[in-house]
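Researcher: Next entry in the queue.
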Amino acid sequence: MPTSPKNHDPSRRRFLAALGLGGLSLLAPGQALAAKPRPEEELATLHDLTKCVGCGACVEACREVNGHKFPEPVKPFPKMLPEGVKAEDWSEKRQESGRLTPYNWLYIQTARGQYLGQRFEVHMPRRCMHCQNPPCANLCPWGAAAREKNGIVLIDDKICLGGAKCKAVCPWEIPMRQTGVGLYLRLLPRLAGNGVMYKCDRCHDRIAAGAKPACIESCPYEVQEIGPRSEVVAKAHALARNINGFVYGETENGGTNSIYVSPVPFDVLDAAVTTGPGKPHLATVGDMMADETRMAYAALLAPVAGIVAGALRIGSRLAEGDGDTPKNGGTPKNGPGAGEGSK
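Model: Structure for this entry, 343 residues:
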C-alpha cells in the first residue's frame, strides 16, 4: 500500500513555503479574477427549447471534447479527519449521463406534463449557467473559481481543494466533486480539502481559439447559439414573443449567460422535472450576491483569495516540477497517503 509523503520531502517543503510566501507579490485585488471589472460585452448562449428533441448529441460531444480535463483519481483515498467526511467517487460511473457529474458536464433534462389543456414534452440541455456575478467565484476562499472577461465561469483544477463552497452558494448546486484528485493530495490529504470540483467551462479553450463550444457545434437541430449577451437577450425576447413563450436565465441570480426560451412557463417545467443532486431546478432565483453580508464578505475576501490563489498556483507548479503531482491528480511518486476510499 502506498505510504504518505514525508514531512521532510523537499518538494513538500517548497510547496508549503509557497503557500506562505508565494502570494506576497500578488497583493493587488485584481488577482481575484472574479473581482475584475465586467467587460462591455459578454458572450451568452441562447437555448431554443422548441427545437430540442433530446437526442443527446451535445452530451456526447461535450464528453469527447472535454474528456482530457476529466479527473483521474488516485486510490485508495486518504482517510479524512474527521472520519465522518465521505469521499465522493464518480470514477466508476463515468458513463452516467442522466445527471451532472465530474465526468458529465451537460445532460438533457426532460419535462412532461400538461399546459393549457395540451400535453407537452420539453427537453433542456442543462449545465452551468455562467452567472454574470457568480457567487461561486466571489465566495471561493481559495480563489479557485473565477469569472473571465467574456463571461465564462471557470474552476481551476490545479488549485481547487474540493471544499465545495462553490456548490453550497450556487443557486442550482451545479459543481460536482471528485475525491482523490488535485492539490489536496500534496498539501494535507487527511485535513485539507477532499478533491476537486468540476463543471462546464463552456469550452473556454475552444472559444479562445475562435471555435464554438462542442455542444453548440454538434447539435443537428441548432438548439443553441452563442453571441454577445445583448444580442442573445434580444433574440430570446423576440423568439418568446413569436411563440408566446417564456424566458429563463436573463435575470435569475442577477443575470446569467445561459438564456432559455420555452413554450411552457418555467414554473410549470420546474414542477414537472426531477430535481435533486446533479439535477438542477428551474425555479425563479433572486440575486444571491445582493445580500449585504455576502457582498461584504466578497469585498473582504477578493484580495485575500487572490493572494492565496497565487500561492497555490506557485506551489502547484513547484510540485509538478518535481514530478510529484501529475496532471489530473495522477499517482505521486510517494503516493497520496494510506487509507481506503468510499463511494
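Model: The two ends are 19 Å apart (CA to CA).
Researcher: Noted, moving on.
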